[in-house]
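Sequence, please.
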């Protein structure tokens, strides 16, 4: 049985590895505190609303804040990348969700929602991905330059954070693995009974 457990763990690790998204590889060295907050970002959920992962959708909008940005300030914006971020309350005591001023080390905004060419104001309908765990979240958008580096950002107000109820903590691939393994153990049990009966009959 111990061997089965080892196999199971290895399988889980292998499946888990697929879900790890390297935090914005292109962002090495860019500091959030050095970026201009020129984007106005809004998300449709009411403050405190609970959304169900894999089911509910969010409408996201972004635009240039004309007060914060000088005319033509967005000439270098080539793309917009929108991310879902763990709200501070959901980062507490969890190093793997911590926000960081160095964006290459930031783990709070680890869920990429969409990236598209910058065209001033934009809008996107996002269905909360099935692998988004239960926590509270806010939304941050980055303006990227031609090299893909962040040059400006904007985010929803901290008091507007909303909650996501995850898919019962079990992702689809783990469900499949568990199904395969339990079918396997039922088969093993059947073989065991057949052998045991044979022994008795002898
Ligand atoms: C636009 O920028 C100004 C100056 O930074 C700021 O005071 C204002 O709150 C921003 N507007 C929005 C809607 O975020």
């Amino acid at each position: 049985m111990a061997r089965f457990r080892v196999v199971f763990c290895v399988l889980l690790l292998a499946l888990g590895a697929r879900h790890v998204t390297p935090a914005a590889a292109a962002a090495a060295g860019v500091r959030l505190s050095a970026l201009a907050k020129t984007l106005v970002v809004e998300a449709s959920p009411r403050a405190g609303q609970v959304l169900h992962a894999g089911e509910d959708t969010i409408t996201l909008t972004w635009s240039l804040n004309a007060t914060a940005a000088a005319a033509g300030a967005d000439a270098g914006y080539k793309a917009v990348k929108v991310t879902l971020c763990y709200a501070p309350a959901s980062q507490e005591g969890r190093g793997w969700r911590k926000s960081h001023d160095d964006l290459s080390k930031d783990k709070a905004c680890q869920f990429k929602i969409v990236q598209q060419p910058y065209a001033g104001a934009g809008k996107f309908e996002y269905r909360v991905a099935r692998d988004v765990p239960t926590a509270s979240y806010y939304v941050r958008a980055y303006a990227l330059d031609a090299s893909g580096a962040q040059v400006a950002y904007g985010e929803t107000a901290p008091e507007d954070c909303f909650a996501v109820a995850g898919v019962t903590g079990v992702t689809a691939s783990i469900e499949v693995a568990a199904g395969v393994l339990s079918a396997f153990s039922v088969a093993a049990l059947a073989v065991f009974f057949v052998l045991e009966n044979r022994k008795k009959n002898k």
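The first strand starts at residue 36 and ends at 37.
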